Amino acid sequence: MKLTDKRILSLKPRMCRYAVHDTGGLYVEVWPSGIKSWRLRFMRNRIRQRVTLGRFPEVTISVARAERDQLMQAICAGRSPHEERRRQRQEAQRGLTVKEFGERYLREVVARARKDSTPVRRYLERSVYPVIGAMRIAAVEAGHVRDLVFAIRDAGHGQAAAAVRNLLKRIWDYALACGIVTDNPARATPIKYIAVARARSRALSEAELREFLNRLDAASMRDEWKAALRLILLTLVRKSELRLARWEHIDLARGEWEIPSEHSKTGAGQVVYLSSQATLLIERLQAPAKRRGHLFPALGSDGSTPIGQSTLNRALLCAQRGMAHFTVHDLRRTGATRLSEMGYNADWIEKALNHKLRGVRGIYNRAEYGPQRRQMLQAWADTLDTIQTSERAA
Fold this sequence. Notes:
Helix content is about 50%, strand content about 10%. It is of the alpha+beta class. The strands form two sheets. The chain has a four-stranded antiparallel beta sheet. It has a three-stranded antiparallel beta sheet with strand order 5-6-7. The longest helix has 24 residues, at about 370-394. It is elongated. The termini are far apart.
């Protein structure tokens, strides 16, 4: 008896999975979870075999029967239905557009590897999808990628162009691994023709620190953003960790800020010991009655949404105007460099940065150095005060 939609919908799950047959070897398998899968039973080389065609109702009766007929024709022609199914899936995937596969890449790769996929999505939606998003991913050639990336570069955004090129390379690498494409068109546009890599060793000198701190105090920007930049310098935390900080993670009485593992780049939680200067900055952020949600909420937010990824970048550009360029991350590097110069233990500094210790030391050294880090960060905050006021006193 042929199956109907009504009959399939009426099938109820049991303790064990069971099958209800249609015709020509096609049947529905009902699982204890309630999932209903189309399967095809057939004989090949005198061996009974089965192949899954998909789930009901996503795969309708008419589609399942059409696939059954197509696979039976392949069997009669001596081809493996499993290989035929794989070929069909690959053909369907080759028809995916860049946008469709980009969304798949976000779900299957980025979301699993990163806590926040917003920066990657922003590059796709602003720079990639408007230009090649509607193209079939298998049809994109090296020239399409080159023209897209060079247009961003020629608009004066070399680093953004390099980031987009690298993102496209990673997407096509995944498409290669999935068997959807046969080459990677982004490889034909080397980074050296897009942007000069920025050195990642920038640390501010004492004179630059003094100039920056004084410029920050005088800058025309929100006090909250000034406090955020100064807190990064005082605590040595990452920008992402500061953005996501919430009031419930702060204990002002103890002078401690707990960064949960889900907010940490390394996946390891961290206790940040607050100097008296850092504690005072945080106390001034909000009235006690309103201390809820994020420390640094987005404008107009009730505290449930943190400031954006680029907010502190823009604030820093405003504060450093007239100075040699440096990034938010360079403030963190500056603190680590200066503490090393002040003679503090390297392990204390690494723990303050929430870095994973490498090699054998990383395996066996589980010390947190709490008292030492508290004293070290207080000394660093006092040093910053001295640096900022020394020129005025002179």
